[in-house]
Amino acid sequence: MTAFFEGIQYLFVNILFAPLDLLRRFELVSWFGANTINWIFMIICSCAIVYWIKQLRIFDDAGTENQDTTAHSFLK
């Protein structure tokens, strides 16, 4: 049974976390380079938020959004 858990440890420590170790070493060289993944995620989330707000405005201007408090049966 210990071999099973040691196999899981090897998988996570030596294989799956290897890219994160590389980023940790790269941080000493370039902070911006090491945080590139974070910057990409922030850009994607910002674009998604802008798109979502635009869609909300489209439905709000068209008047198709149901803002009645009894829209759901559990609110009655």
From TrEMBL:
Chain segments annotated as transmembrane: 28-53
UniProt lineage: Bacteria, Pseudomonadati, Bacteroidota, Flavobacteriia, Flavobacteriales
Protein's UniProt name: Uracil phosphoribosyltransferase
InterPro entries to which the protein is assigned, alphabetical: DUF6341
UniProt GO MF annotations: glycosyltransferase activity
UniProt keyword annotations, A-Z: Glycosyltransferase, Membrane, Transferase, Transmembrane, Transmembrane helix
Protein origin, superkingdom: Bacteria
Pfam families in the record: DUF6341 (PF19868)
